[in-house]
Amino acid sequence: ELDAGIAPANGVDSPLVVRLPRLEEERGLWGSSREARVALREYGLERGLEIDVVAMPNRHPEHARSVTPAAPARRAERRALRRISGAVTIALVSPKRSATKRIAQAPALPSMAELEDIRRTCRRFLGGHGHRSTAEQLAAIPQDVQADSYGDGGVVAELEAKIATLLGKPTAVFVPSGTMGQQIVLRVHADRRNRRTVLYHPQCHLAVHELGAAQRLHGLQGRAVGDRNRLISIDDLRIAPDGRTPIAEAPAALLLELPQRDIGGQLPPWKDLVAQVDWAHSVGAAAHMDGARLWQCAGFYERSLDAIAAPFDTVYVSFYKDVGALAGAAVAGPADVIAEVREWRQRHGGTLYSMWPHAASALANLRARLPRMPSYQAHALALADALRNLPGLQLVPDPPQSSMFHLVLHRDAEALQAAALRLAKDERIWTWGAFYATEVPGISRTELSVGDATLLWTPAEFRGVIASLLAG
Fold it and tell me: In terms of Cα–Cα distance, which of 253, 385, 378, 258 is closest to 318?
């Protein structure tokens, strides 16, 4: 349809901007909005033309005259556009107009680098610990730390001993990233059992954020358990409606994330958590904890970190999440398992010549922020109380179970981001760099993790900022 009469003439030096609805799949054009975006971008690439696809709320075709020019010369274009996008909203450069003149252009969203530049200009931050310069982060590292040599000795060994003690495990190993550490320890569990299947939540980090690395690098087979919008329960593992066991194959490991970040930091009741770990052991599987944000969990369970970690064979923790250190993570567990993790770390290229800056940052920030975790959770509860009756807003979960929760906002993600950028530029308040569309048009979602910067906001002030985002 674009080729038939609405493609810009050769030499156009500005992009064609296509506005698509969020639910193309309901109109039978493409299998999903992602496929629609890919198809249109490929169309442009084949013709040396930049096409920017912008998500828009759905509008019924009968509204065409209110959103597109009514001139007769454009009617054929409107009909074509309806067939292409399943709706009527599209902005383009007409072949009958100047090559540089646009009928309508959605403002381009800032790149990640541009967002970071804007963030650096802000003075107040809703989430986390706010912006810290590189000089501030380096200044937090004590000057008398001892360097390591390829991960041996010095402050790296000190950090590993600290983590082993905190988690109540025989030993621990520092790794450059949690992605590396978890893949490795799951590989070790799988090799020892001669099994390849790892059970996890549908929104587990391995399933969503790692490009299938566990399978491609280690031959592990991930199997999602339960519903993506709620926590795994013991019934998902052992009881099906017809009375049969839903997990028939023998898994190598059961991975449980505490808290479950992508559903708002939810946590299972302690009894159910222990039952799931016991089930894994009963079928000969290891129980591994993705404890990237384990630091938040002590208040909910009213247990120490080592008590929470005790049922699990191995535990991973992150040092930049919540703690606010430089990149890095640790895996803790039995000495023989961790010895194998060290070997695999080297195979991954993760045994760096010198890791002391990251380890020293982790140790310093653990000492500073672990004592503050109760205040983070208390403030999350106070913020939830202030936000609960705000029109156009829902909290997930409500009340928060850790020091994080999700905000479900009844406004389009692009409109929210535009409002957030105005706050950042005009008032030097950083809210969020991105809002995420849900499957419901006009409903968006974002995440709040309470940190040092959040503690500086009173609940009333915080409510006012969220209200301004919703109002625009």
Answer: 258
Question: Which residues contact residue 179 at a Cβ distance below 8 angstroms, ignoring those fewer than 6 apart?
Answer: 205, 209, 210, 213
Q: What angle do CA 200, 202, 207 make, to 5 degrees?
A: 80
**C-beta of residue 90 within 8 angstroms of C-beta of residue 418:** no
Calpha distance 190→346 (Å, rounded): 19
Q: Phi and psi of 320, rounded to 5°?
A: -95, -30
CB-based burial of residue 309 (10 Å sphere; 0-12 exposed, 13-18 middle, 19+ buried)?
Answer: buried
Q: What share of the chain is helix, strand, coil (3-state, %, to 5)?
A: 45, 15, 40
Residue 124 three-state SS: strand
Phi-psi region of 96 (alpha: psi -120 to 50; beta: other; left: phi over 0): alpha
- Evaluate if pTM is beyond 0.90: no
- Pair of tokens at residue 22: 């969020």
pLDDT at 248: 83
Confidence band for 247, pLDDT divided at 50, 70 and 90? confident
Query: Which residues fall within 8 angstroms of residue 173, CB to CB, at 6 or more apart?
Result: 151, 160, 181, 330, 331, 332, 338, 341, 342, 345
3-state secondary structure of 460: helix
Q: Is 233 exposed, middle or buried (0-12, 13-18, 19+ CB in 10 A)?
A: middle
Pairing of strands 429-430, 329-333: unpaired
